[in-house]
Amino acid sequence: MKINTALILCAGYGKRLNPLTLTEPKPLLMVNETTLLENCINLIKYLGIKKILINTFYLKEKIEDFINMKKFDLDIKIISDGDTILNTGGGILNMMNSSNESDFLTLNPDTIWNKSYVESIQSMEKFYFSNQIKNILLLVNKNLSFDKKLKGDFNLLENVIKKDFQNNLIYTGCQIINKDLFSSHSVSNFSISEIWNQLISKNKLYGYESLESFYHLTNLEIYKELLKNN
User: Fold this and answer.
1) Cβ neighbours around 229 below 10 Å, total
2) Class of domain 5-229 as given by CATH
3) What is the mean pLDDT of the chain?
4) Model's pTM, two decimal places?
5) Where exactly are the structural domains of the chain?
6) How confident is the model at residue 1 (pLDDT cuts 50, 70, 90)?
7) Rounded-to-integer distance, Cα 155 and Cα 164, Å
C-alpha cells in the first residue's frame, strides 16, 4: 500500500504576509530562489508520488500560469474552490471528490519543505498503512521551529495525539488522511480542525514526530528573517 495522490492547499489569502500577498499568492513567494509551491512539488516528487491536486481561489490565475510555465514532469491538476473559499476542510474534500483514491498526502506550502523530510514522511506512511488508521499528522517539537513565537498545538502519547497544558508539538502542515473521515461533511467552508477535534475526543487522531528543523512562513516579519538567514 502506498499514497498515489498528494493534495496541496493553495487557496488562502495569505493576509499575514500583506502587502506582498496583495499581488502575489503566498505559495508563489520565494525562499532561496524557489517558490514555496515548487518546494512542495519537489518534495512530492522525491516521495515518488506522481499525481498532485492543487486547490486555488485567491489569485488563482497566477498559480495556474506558474504550473503551466514550469511544465513539471508530474500529473498536476488544479481544482478551484469555486465561487467562495472553502477553508482547509472544504478545500481538501473538494479535491478528494475529483479523485478515485481513498488515502491522500496533504501538504501546506506555508512550510519550507525540503528533501530531508522524505524519511519521516515515508515512515509516517508506513505507520499509517501498517496500523490501518484513517489519519496521521506530521508534528515537530516547537524547539525545532525557526519562529520561536509559534505555540505548540498537540502532544503525543504512543502516536496518539492529545491536547493538554503542555502542547509541545506543532503541526507541520503535512498529513495523510482517508476520505471516509469526511462522510458527514459536504463541500462547504469548514476547517480540517473540526475533523481533528472529533477524532481527538475519541483518541483516534494519530501523529508522527519529525526531528527536522521547522521553517514556516507565519507572517511578514518571519518571512523577512528567513530571507536574511537563507
Assistant:
1) 9
2) alpha beta
3) 96
4) 0.97
5) 5-229
6) confident
7) 7
